Amino acid sequence: MNPVDLRAFDRVAGRAETLDNGLRVVLLPQNGAESIVVALCYRAGSRDEEPGEGGLAHFLEHMMFKGSAAYEPGAIDRLTQGLGGTNNAFTSHDATLYHFQFEGGSWQEALRIESDRMRGLSLLPAEVELEREVILEEIRMVEDDPWDALEQAVAGRIFGEHPYGRSVLGTRESLRALDAGALHSFHCRHYRPDRAVLVCAGGLPPDAMEKIDATLGSVATGPDTRDADQRPDPRTQFRRIELRRGETPRLLVVHPAPLPDDPAYVHLRLALAVLCSGRSSRVQRDLVEEDPLALWASAAVTGHRLGGMATLSAEAAPGVHPERLEEELYVRVEDLSSRPPAREELERAKRMLFADWVFMHEPIAERAMTAALEHALFSPGFSRDSFRALADATASDVAGACAVWLSAETRVVGWSLPVAGSASAGRQGHAD
Q1: Residue 349 vs residues 253, 254, 276, 342, 360: alpha-carbon distances, Å
Q2: 3-state DSSP call for residue 26?
Q3: Which long-range CB contacts under 8 A does 313-316 form with residues at least 24 apart?
Q4: Rounded to whole angstroms, what are the CA distances from 15 to 169, 201, 348?
Q5: N or C: which end of the chain has fewer CB within 10 A?
Q6: Of 2, 1, 12, 40, which Cα lies nearest the Cα of 358?
């Protein structure tokens, strides 16, 4: 039985059309749905920041809710709540995405909001300063969180000076240097219809495309700009990091990952699933269930457009020396490189990854966002193509990906250890 039913990916496939101003529009109608999601993805993230602009893309995301010609500061949130809807946004290294969900009769309000703020923002000085303080607090929270701080430190070692090695939030210093002029410049360069994908999903009316064109089709495009397409050059000469945070030893092992549209990316995802997905996976079974060296363990691969990171993470069980947990984790990785998964093991990993995708895309909003990111960063049908490759992957493909991409030569290791002098620090010892 095939572990992947490709019909599931019809959920993120729909009618696509490019308006005269370059805006890509995708419609995902769903019979019986009472709400409509409007997701607008700009092909602009922290990777597109110029030197000295660290955190600018994320700062602008905040300011998109703080005033434009037709909407005073706070009006978008008040209007959304008043109509019983929701809104949110996120910024990544590669893109920034905004989404609204309204009852079917109110969905055009999202189009009017996006049209107005695509044309320009107020960027009132008082609002800029308020949001600067909000983001500075976000930075403090990340620095105080053991896992967030460790992941950022390791990313910096892997990617070096490439934007993927920097926090999307920027730093305190870079954020304090940004002003309304910098925000306006980034908006003009990147918040244009020809650098955006609009996805509308749910109980759409038959004339949805015409309504979208009437609202957003007249937004003028700007001067041509190129995507920031410099690929990272992973560096691993400084291969160990130790931070002092919290009260529990936390391990993060990271390797550079292939491009998301490379078949090796799919094979690597399967290798990580064989290692860490579910209680019967090798690491979970051996190091969490049978011989509890770790309280938990997980693995993932980030899908940056130009290459990401494969991560294995674990939290040491009380009384376990960090070095032992680390060494035993490597034993399982090296074993997979030399001992391909059995058929049942491989099929289980495929089923788990497919089931996770299906479960995550039950909500209409998730379908809309995935479709928007596919069209903005990759290609229509990207998810379907990836899972077709996953269904066809062999045990030797998985072992080969493990040997190439999870090798000791590319490994960067981060430990977040208890603060020196604490009781737990005395029990655990030192990672180096």
Answers
A1: 21, 21, 10, 11, 17
A2: strand
A3: 313/147, 313/250, 313/251, 313/252, 313/253, 314/250, 314/251, 314/283, 314/287, 315/248, 315/249, 315/250, 315/251, 316/248, 316/249, 316/250, 316/251, 316/428
A4: 35, 11, 34
A5: N
A6: 12
- Which of these, 106, 88, 110, 98, lies nearest to 35 by C-alpha position? 106
- Spell 410-421 as b/e; 16+ CB within 10 A means b: bbbbbbbbbeee
Q: What is the rounded distance in angstroms from the CA atom of residue 54 to the CA atom of residue 171?
A: 7
Residue type, 58: H
CB 337 within 8 A of CB 406: yes
User: Are the C-beta atoms of residues 255 and 429 closer than 8 Å to each other?
Assistant: no
3-state secondary structure of 363: coil
Q: How far is CA 42 from CA 61, 90, 150, 377, in A?
A: 11, 11, 29, 9
What is the rounded CA–CA span in Å between residue 226 and residue 219? 20
* Upper half-sphere CA count for residue 81 (Cβ side, 13 Å): 5
> Of 332, 341, 338, which Cα lies nearest the Cα of 314?
332
Phi, psi of 326 (to 5 degrees): -60, -45
> Torsions phi, psi of 15, nearest 5?
-70, 130
Spatial distance between the Cα atoms of 360 and 419, rounded to a whole number of angstroms: 37
Dihedral sign for Cα atoms in the order 65, 71, 73, 74: negative
How deeply is 376 buried, as exposed, middle or buried, from its count of CB atoms within 10 A (0-12, 13-18, 19+)?
A: buried
Please count the other Cβ atoms lying within 10 Å of the Cβ belonging to residue 273: 25
Give me the helices (H) in 248-321, please. Answer: 263-276, 282-283
Contact 94, 47 (CB under 8 A): yes
The span from the CA of 169 to the CA of 152, in Å, is 11
Q: Of all helices (H) and strands (E), which one includes residue 37? A: strand 35-42
